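Example record

One chain of 256 residues, shown exactly as stored in the release files.
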Amino acid sequence: MAIFYASQNMPEDDSSASGGDINSGIRIAMETLDTPTTITAYSASNSDINTVSVYGRNTAGVTINETINVSGTGTSDPGSTTFSGIFKATLSHATGYANITVSGTSQNVIGTIPIYESGFRAPFYKATASAGSSKDFYEKIFIKNVNASTTIYDSKIVQIADTGLSSQITFAIEEGRSSPTPFAHSGIGVTGEVANRLTVPSSYIDHFGSGTSGIWPSGSGNLGPTSYQGVWLKLSLDAGVGALNSFYQIEQSGRS
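Predicted structure tokens for this chain:
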């Protein structure tokens, strides 16, 4: 089984570093709310007493946040803040006793925080277009084989076309290096980072595109047990574009 995770540096501004190694405690969530709503949360364990901090936008496009209580398996009382979209959610305690689910009130599930993990987030937090020119953002996520004994063969990254932000986001596989060592960590590729999310990660990739791409090396590598592969995302915004409440779909394919 393969899961998309965050990188260590997922900036929330245009000046902080972007990329680095994997952050296996934060999953990538790419869904959005069906309609503006308040937020609820619940656990798969009656033993869970926790809080989850939720960050997003309201219907006016303003960045907001709220802390939602988690008390066992019962759905929490809805928060008082109406969200039109969710950027991220993080637990106040390092981990729950079981999976914790965050959703819109009587709506779709936005994300689940599994046991031993601490949250989920979307890429390109508060990415804002320029008034007079187009603007590109670069952030890195990872695909990880979470199985401790099974290899995923012929592993490929697949962008789902004609949905959400598919026309504005492209991706590139982070490549490994043959010298001084082929692998810089237990995964595949290097743990590259750039100065900020406006900097092109040209030293770590070949090119950006939207077609199906095999993981490194040679575009058709295998993803071994607990190994992971860096994937750079590029978001292109036209000049003057306002706040977007949309989604992005990317998947991993392979065989075991």
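Notes: The chain has two domains: 2-24+125-255, 39-121.
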